[in-house]
Design goal:
The chain has 14 helices and 11 strands. The protein is α+β, with helices and mostly antiparallel strands. The protein has 2 domains: 216 residues, Jelly Rolls, CATH 2.60.120.810; 103 residues, Arc Repressor Mutant, subunit A, CATH 1.10.10. The strands form 2 sheets. The chain has a 6-stranded mixed beta sheet with strand order 1-2-4-9-6-7, with no helix packed on it. Helix 4 runs parallel beside helix 7. The longest helix has 22 residues.
């Protein structure tokens, strides 16, 4: 399937859409078989793609046009992508307009509805189980830095919240290409399609993290009150991890150190020391695996004057010594070369 064929496929009138065109304003018989659930005192529909998600990591649908979606929640993570046109949503009581290229990522307990979408409004719905985010692909994302970890963990790892993020693509051509490739692969499957879909999802989420980081001031976001401030603070730690202290950081942002420490803990779930150590260890692991720098130089480069303390913290996190970590990486790399 090429892009032109994909476009024709998505714009074709489906049996469901034909029914809605012939029964304008009527609710589909589909809803008679959909369970309802009480969310914070509101009785809403519960959409469950569990059967399909047992067979594959993600499931993709085109939302039916010429009808509306009543208040509902999903049993799994949901992503809405506006392929063309626009769509008006009410998400957790807030009116949100998504235009072509925009993406809304929703957690399981977010109540939302959508107004009637018209002929040129093509909305793609992608459902993903939370267990999907426990795969190596989540690890590959969250290991990139404390900001990425914060964004991913805030939405995915806390099972108790109900959050959503809206990504304004602003005609980002990369998102357009990634999504089209993902959809072509899903609707026209070939050998190894699951592995290809997973790879496209890694690329997609990596690009979304980039968008969130670079345009955080413009993002509509879940319950991230003052989250832009927090992301700026995490940037500060990433840029000054080798020598910053809670006091120096508080002075930089004009806060009392105790207040700043409490703010970081409440927003990230980690103390300043934990955030700093996390980035120090990630940088140390990068130096160890991608250079021949002696271990004592690695320790000094990431801000440790006490080599013994560095060894202890490294082993606490990675369960092996720095040298064992380097040896394991080299062995794995050599085995990969031999495999070719």
């Amino acid at each position: 399937m090429n892009y032109k064929e994909l476009d024709c496929f998505l714009r074709e009138i489906t049996p469901s859409e034909k029914w809605h065109l012939e029964n304008l304003g009527k609710k589909s018989e589909f809803y008679k078989n959909v369970d309802k659930v009480n969310i914070d005192g509101s009785l809403v529909y519960l959409f469950d793609f569990g059967i399909r998600l047992k067979k594959e990591n993600i499931t993709i649908n085109k939302d039916s046009r010429f009808t509306y979606l009543p208040d509902h929640v999903h049993t799994d993570m949901e992503m809405n992508y506006i392929y063309s046109g626009s769509c008006n949503y009410v998400v957790d009581g807030k009116t949100v307009v998504l235009n072509k290229g925009d993406i809304c990522l929703l957690d399981t307990n977010v109540i939302h509805s959508a107004s009637t979408i018209n002929k040129d409004d093509i909305v793609i719905n992608i459902s993903m189980t939370k267990s999907f985010f426990n795969t190596s692909f989540l690890s590959r994302l969250s290991n990139q830095g404390i900001i990425t970890s914060f964004l991913i963990n805030a939405l995915i790892e806390d099972q108790s919240h109900n959050k959503y993020i809206i990504f304004r693509s602003n005609d980002n051509y990369k998102i357009d290409i990634i999504m089209k490739n993902l959809l072509c692969e899903y609707f026209d499957r070939d050998i190894c399609y699951n592995e290809v879909l997973d790879s496209y999802m890694i690329i997609l989420f990596s690009e979304l993290v980039r968008i969130f980081n670079s345009n955080s001031q413009e993002q509509d976001s879940m319950d991230f009150n003052k989250s832009n401030n927090v992301i700026t603070m995490l940037h500060y730690i990433e840029n000054n991890y080798s020598n910053c202290t809670l006091k120096s950081m508080a002075d930089n942002f004009g806060y009392n150190p105790n207040y700043l420490g409490s703010l970081l803990k409440s927003k990230t779930g980690k103390t300043f020391s934990e955030l700093k150590l996390e980035h120090q260890m990630k940088q140390a692991s990068m130096f160890i695996t991608n250079s021949e720098m002696p271990i004592y130089e690695v320790a000094s480069s990431v801000g440790f004057s006490n080599l013994g303390f560095f060894y202890k913290k490294f082993k606490d996190i990675f369960k092996v010594t720095p040298q064992e970590y380097r040896d394991f990486y080299l062995m794995k790399h050599m085995n990969q070369i031999k495999a070719y």
